[in-house]
Amino acid sequence: MTKITHCIFDMDGLLLDTEQIYSDVISEILERYGKKYTWELKSRSMGLRQDDSATFLIENTGIDMTAEELIRERNEKHIQRFPFARPMPGAMRLVKHLKAHNIPMVVATSSHRNSFMIKASNNQDLFGMFDDVTCGNDPGVKNGKPAPDLFLVACEKIGNPPVEQCLVFEDAPNGVRAAKNAGMHVVWVPDPNVAALHPGDNGADDVISSLENFDPAKFGLPPFSN
């Protein structure tokens, strides 16, 4: 394997524990229409940009809302809860380690810029270590995951290294496919419920249950000292 020199991190469910917030909000909305937010629906919508996700949910549940109405209500509820999201297990340790060894890092999230700012507001100790952030509504991100746009734009922001030297960390199958479509290596860190619905590695170079289990040396990165 080509030595990894740059790292790209998804955010929701990977760096920040926001997926329960997403699930709770969508479940509350769907319940008004007698629908359930199943793990099958969730796994297929994870990693999509907000407009694509809203359209997907409406088409697959038949709820009587427009995409604009769903996005508006969802975002209002998110604003109230996102500031309370905390880092996922192992996230702070890994990012600190890579930062200490001067590995360029960028966040690549399908979230819009304003949503990212709300989520990051109480987590500056984590996000302050990154060299840059790419969001789903940034210029250049024409297509959402599984298209590679998000990761290719993120790559440009950290010096535009050869894509095969980039390692992406993702929790969603759509994100894994996007990373591979970009020609990058990818570590998949799925929720157990998502892993059960999508058995196997789904094309990822490594599959781990938590960032706590990541072995940097496996990808030619500086090993943990303990």
Describe the overall structure:
This protein has helices at 19-31, 39-45, 50-61, 67-81, 91-100, 113-120, 124-127, 149-157, 173-181, 192-197; strands at 6-9, 105-109, 132-135, 166-170, 185-188, 206-207. The model has no long low-confidence stretch (mean pLDDT 95). It folds into 2 domains: 6-17 and 88-219, Rossmann fold (3-Layer(aba) Sandwich), CATH 3.40.50.1000; 19-83, DNA polymerase, domain 1. 41% of the residues lie in helices and 11% in strands. α1 crosses α4 (67-81). The longest helix is centred in the first third of the chain and has 15 residues, at 67-81. Strands 3-2-1-4-5-6 form a 6-stranded parallel sheet, with helices on both faces. The chain is built from 10 helices and 6 strands; from the N terminus they run βαααααβααβαβαβαβ. α9 (173-181) links the parallel β4 and β5. The protein is α/β, with parallel strands linked by helices.
Q: What sort of overall outline do the alpha carbons produce when their principal axes are compared? A: globular
Round the mean pLDDT to the nearest integer and report it: 95
Beta-strand content bin: 5-15%
CATH class of the largest domain: Alpha Beta
Largest sheet: 6 strands, parallel
The figure for the number of domains is 2
Fraction in helix: 40-55%
Oligomer: single chain
End-to-end gap: 24 Å
The residue ranges in which pLDDT falls below 50 over 5 or more consecutive positions are none
The CATH H-level homologous superfamily of the largest domain: HAD superfamily/HAD-like
The CATH topology annotation of the largest domain reads as Rossmann fold
Q: What is the annotated CATH architecture of the largest domain?
A: 3-Layer(aba) Sandwich
Number of helices: 10
